[in-house]
Design a protein that fits this description.
- By secondary structure, the chain is α+β, with helices and mostly antiparallel strands.
- Among the domains are: about 20-210, Beta Polymerase, domain 2, CATH 3.30.460; about 215-360, Nucleotidyltransferases  domain 2 (Four Helix Bundle (Hemerythrin (Met), subunit A)); about 705-920, ACT domain (Alpha-Beta Plaits), CATH 3.30.70.
- The protein contains 41 helices and 15 strands.
- Strands 8-9-11-10-14-15-13-12 form an eight-stranded antiparallel β-sheet, sandwiched between helices. It has a four-stranded mixed β-sheet with strand order 3-2-1-4.
- Helix 2 runs antiparallel to helix 3 (about 40-70).
- The longest helix is centred in the middle third of the chain and has 30 residues, at about 330-360.
- The chain is globular and about 110 Å long.
- The two termini are about 45 Å apart.
- The relative contact order is 0.04.
Length: about 900
Amino acid sequence: MPAKTDTRSGAAHAPRLIAPPADIFDGAAVAAAISAADPSDRQALRTAATDALRAAQKTGRETIAAAFAAAPFDAATMTVSYTFLTDQMVKTTLDVATRLMFPTPPGERLSVIGVGGYGRGEMAPFSDVDLLFLTPAKITPWAEQVIEAMLYILWDLKLKVGHSSRTIRDCVRLGSEDFTIQTALLEHRYVGGDTRLAIELDEALKKDLFSGSGREFIEAKLNERDSRHLKQGQRYVVEPNVKEGKGGLRDLQSLFWIAKYIHGVEHSADLVREGVFRAEEYDTFNAAENFLWAVRGHLHLLTRRATEQLTFDMQVQVAEAMGYEDRDGRRAVEVFMQAYFRHATAVGDITRIFLTKLEDMHVKSEPLLERIFRRRPRIKQGYEVVHNRISIKDDTAFLSEPLNLLRLFEEALRTGMLIHPDAMRTVKANLHLIDDDLRNNAEAQRLFLDLLLKHGNPERALRRMNELGVLSAFIPEFEPIVAMMQFNMYHSYTVDEHTIQTIANLAMIEKSELEEELPVASSILQKGVNRKVLYVALLLHDIGKGRREDHSILGAQIARKVAPRLGLKQDEVDTVEWLVRYHLLMSDMAQKRDIADPRTVRDFAKAVQTVKRLDLLCVLTVCDIRGVGPNTWNNWKAVLIRALYRQTERALETGLEDLNRQNRGAEAKTTLRKALADWPQKALKIETARHYDPYWQGLHVTAHVTFANLLRDIEQGDIRIDLHPDEDRDATRACFVMEDHPGIFTRLTGALALVGANVVDARSYTTKDGYVTDAFWIQDSEGNAYEASKLPRLRQMIEKILRGEVIAREALKSRDKVKKREKAFRVPTSITFDNDGSEIYTIIEVDTRDRPGLLYDLARALAASNVYIANAVIATYGEQVVDTFYVKDMFGLKYHSASKQRTLEKRLRQAISEGVERADV
């Protein structure tokens, strides 16, 4: 914390400024400018003071900002310098008000006290200026005039001033009633005015407000912290609040407030002398505080206002301002955010140790009967229970056996108790004991695997081990992904937290907590799999991230080294390696390919080879997707994964020859006849004969029934539409039937884009008698099916567009805006052609930045090239989208020609870039 002023002596510590004092505030120049004004004209004095101070403020801010830009991590001098600049402006304003505008009458006393962050002496560029105008008794007319004059000048300077006018008695009374006021007064600092009055306040507060045990104050601060964390989210939130978020500056400030209340310290370094921190813990505290203040300072300067949220776009700018550079295949912003999250984690460790210890000191004793009858698990030798937390009896004996560093976590899981902060400190301070001998110790391997497999709560053990550094010490290959941010909108967590989330999901499935939501994954675990392989594969599946190489390939190589060290047999190691190498395969196949195409399932089945691997990969895929973020898993993904699993399982059990179009077509027609049993035989025969094979394999019988009804008795020129909520898929199915003509698929995508619908799947089929049967699955902006009440209006808008009353291309121009915070993401465009993934189509995969109207632009480009689009599969990953088109040329052939592929790619890239240009307008 910056230095404080001692109000009893009027002395102050001498903080180091970021530039010479006169460069920050030229007091002589300001005084000269003010003295030129007519001393009898109060308005002129106010104007002169405001103009002089505004000029000085501008120069001072520019000086501090320039020096801070040159030393972007020097937060301590930055905060002190802004405080110094503010002090000079407040003091000058006070002088003008009490000496020139309203000279102080005999007997009048007024003291200006800084409170809160300003009182603490910590100011970011646009921090609030919290002032207490202190008077000895009820405010007098003179004091009222002075305060008003000061505030008007400070407001004219665009300072955000928080102010109160109180007597010493008011301060004591209000502080005892309101912990927010009490906290602000805890950090009061004399700025100017009557010195004796400030000393009297200091003495009164110590005697009457801060003389108790502090129990209520501590409890209030702990409750405040919990509420703040609940509101802001965990520290792994990818757009953290530097001030209020978990692991942010407010956590450090809460710690200091409590320490100051209890120990009366004036500087955080004093906490070492008081025994609150060990020297190395204070170093961690100091480093985190300096880093977070530096981030906050750059945020304020870049946005020119009091901004505390590190949004995606600001993360890039702050990283650049602090001098971070691209490194080892990672963007500078990712390197910066990993540093941020590591400091936030350190703050969490420090505050937990300190605050939990205080919490222990203030825990109420349990009632006698509860202590007698409450059953506690028996604690193993070497441990003891301190305030319901497991602690270490004898540190020396504990550390004499390095295996105890793992046994502690096992004992905590076995008993269900939290680990005492003193035990955490002991572990953290002795990580060097976890060496190669321990890593290769069979008992250590057993202990680690038991933490994953035995106690039913691996998430808790892994998270605590990760926070204390034990996980990285035991598996050094895990260390690079600790606090590693993935700079995109898809992943909600850092890589290590994502890994722990996936394991938490697996544990919940095992405990049958997700049986209704995940029936397939639950049934797989119920019939039995190698749990050891599955848990280790999830632990290692993303361990290769953050390097230049493909993380799946590198991760598999790492897994081959790590898995044996965890005690796995060779066949288990092979399976873990395969799962890590192909952990994205099932997700990609389900979301980026047409799983109704027999070739998709056949290729996937050949890659998986056995039902055993299929089972493991399916569960891993589900846990992986669910671990990406709280809302990533949905019914749409569930339907795709289940369908791919069931079809592949059937193919592996009965033979790949079952996967052919004729078999599927025959089954589909039989199913439709049963569903339309009330139809005349002639009408049913017309319907089953009018479609080509792909139609029968690509749609569910419910869609076949809908299209049959739309096609029945259709006449030339008819446009028939059916909108139906498909709740099983969290989407609305939109079916269209009309006469076939070139570009109809493009018109439909344009119509859907204009009504704001997000297309997640699309299938287009032409009947033998010249009609188009197109099915789209669409979602609203929240990723849900449209409410039934909104469907009539949606239908009207689509019909209007299809009748040509609105031109989609023109109307979409105003809707292509990319949000400012999303422009920071780099999403390179990749376009690939695959002639092996389907028997009759070329598969064009377009991987690029998502935006409104993208599918329409791509479809229009393909239509202009006379490309027939049979299906479009859309997979969205935050700001990134993969649009996959199953296409043929105008002669019904695949695109084998390299020159034709190059031409199509050029036109697709042009369509993307034109849309980006519109989006940037």
